[in-house]
Amino acid sequence: MTLSTQGPAAAGRPSGAAPARPDAPVPGLRDFYENPTVPVASGEARTLRQARMLAEALGPAGPGRPAATVLDVGCGDGSAGAIAAGVLDGHRVVGVDWSQDALRRASRRMGRVVRGELTGGGLPFAAGCADAVLFGEVVEHLVDPDGALDELRRVLRRGGHLMLSTPNLAAWYNRALLLAGVQPVFSEVSLRRIHGRPGTEVVGHLRLYTARALREFVAASGFEVVRVAGAPFHGVPRPLRPLDRLACGVPSLASILLVHARKV
């Protein structure tokens, strides 16, 4: 899920680009995320859990309950937004991204897409126009996460819902890796290649959160945290996936953190 040079992508989506030569110029973040070989879809398990949490909060659209406007900010190729639209039956889901390439792909999956950035002039929406914002695995890519949440808060109506997800720095396996002196999964020290941690795919993470830090950060940005939940990570080796699903019962240990917050 891409969104502006200060944080365009979705967590957990790998880069298939070949490593750059050591003497090659380092691309800017915008160049990195515009690379067509970088997938812009995220894990389906996370997407479903996040959408179901929002569906529970919004309730069904129908007589006496008008359809809600949901902005999928950082929609990427639209795959997550399409899944969410199926769960949020009757509500309007609008995909928002800065990348024209991502929006072209998203338009095949989502009925409504809009180009917009969190930086500069902000999103092309009036204040208080949205009932909910899906912000799935974008915040870990941002240079300025504070400004991003300020902008999301601006477009939400009072009492509107923020559904934010991001990888967990303190996931159960990262705790073991750190004890062994190994760089945690999800963390990166270079946009060229992976150093010091498991895996081979560069995903462009700039910031990582524990459950406590994420809760405090969201609350300090003018939101009331309603719930923190966990979701599994599709990149966990198959033999360990049952344990990863079990860890979701304790969000502070889960691979992916899901936060439901409301604008106050």
Automatic annotation (TrEMBL):
Keywords in UniProt for this one?
Methyltransferase, Transferase
Q: Which CDD domains match?
A: AdoMet_MTases
**What InterPro entries does this protein map onto?**
Methyltransf_11, SAM-dependent_MTases_sf
**Gene Ontology molecular function terms on file:** S-adenosylmethionine-dependent methyltransferase activity
Keyword Methyltransferase present in the record's keywords: the answer is yes
Top-level taxon: Bacteria
According to its UniProt entry, the protein's GO biological process terms are: antibiotic biosynthetic process; methylation
Domain (Methyltransferase type): residue spans on this chain: 71-163
Record field: compositional bias (Low complexity): 7-23
Gene3D superfamilies for this protein: Vaccinia Virus protein VP39 (3.40.50.150)
Looking up SUPFAM superfamilies in the UniProt record yields: S-adenosyl-L-methionine-dependent methyltransferases
Pfam families listed in its UniProt record: Methyltransf_11
Per its UniProt entry, what is the enzyme's top EC class, as one word? transferase
Disordered, as annotated region = 1-29
Q: Does the keyword Acyltransferase apply?
A: no
Q: What is its EC number?
A: 2.1.1.-
Name under which the protein is recorded: Putative S-adenosylmethionine-dependent methyltransferase
